[in-house]
Amino acid sequence: MANDAVLRSSLIWLAAIIVVVGINTQSFKKMMGTYLVGVLGIAGVLLPDWGYFSRDFSRWTSPVTAEERASQIAKGSESKRFKIYPIRLAIYTTVYGFALYKWWIFISK
């Protein structure tokens, strides 16, 4: 990952949320549930190889060629990280929405 500061700050916010959940619920299980959902959520957003997934959807099954990798490196600081892709947005919304719903049900019991 190019920017470790984002990962670090996300983990710090997750720790703060875990402390708040622990204080409010007085449950170690709920704290660990929050930790698990948070780490998986952060990993799902920050750790994927965006150069690989930013290609056309039909090319996801083939490996990245050396020329494609070189062209991505040559582009350098051009940020396509937050470019909106409809399929990716639909998948992320569905998965994270379901996970957040299940987490909320678990925490509010």
Keyphrases for this structure?
72% helix; mainly alpha
List the helices and strands and how they pair.
Blueprint: H1 4-25, H2 28-46, H3 50-53, H4 66-75, H5 86-108
Helix pairs in contact: 1-2, 2-5
Question: Can you describe this structure?
Answer:
This protein is mainly α and 109 residues long. The protein is built from five helices and no strands. The chain has helices at 4-25, 28-46, 50-53, 66-75, 86-108. Helix 1 (4-25) runs antiparallel to helix 2 (28-46) and helix 2 (28-46) packs antiparallel against helix 5. It is elongated, with a radius of gyration of 17 Å.
Largest beta-sheet details: none
Shape: elongated
β-strand number: 0
Topology order in helix (H) and strand (E) letters: HHHHH
First-last Cα distance? 37 Å
Strand content: under 5%
Pick out the low-confidence regions: none
Gist?
The chain has 109 residues and is mainly α.
